Amino acid sequence: MRLLSIVLTLVLLVCFLGFVVTNLDARIGVTVWKTHHEAVSLHLVVILSLLAGALWVGIIGIGQGIQMWLVNRRLSREIQKLETELNYLRTQPVTRAATDADPADESELPRRSRPAGDVREDGVPLPSAPVYGPDDDGDPDDDVYSGGRAV
To answer: 85: phi > 0 → left, psi -120 to 50 → alpha, else beta; which?
Structure first.
């Protein structure tokens, strides 16, 4: 795409220079709003019109660039919120679905939530911080505060 743009720009430049060289002596009358100018060089009128067009395209490009920057900023904030929610959900303890056991027998019902500081059967405390820590391989994508790499 960049090569095509360069080639088209060079073709336009060659055509413009050919026009200016062939019409160096041409003089025309120009009316701008109510003011009339006699004997203005044709190549000067063409140069001014090309500059005005370039200025207009530049203004439009700046407006679209600002619009794209605002959309990217909004999407980056949304991604950050979703990553925060995902990391929060990764650190939550796993809950099991209810079984068809008799509700009167509470020993067979799964625990839905565990309070902080609860310990497993073997005496190891359940994690209350992010489960996934960063590897020590120096990967810049690992982030200690976001819970590290996904498994």
So the answer is: alpha
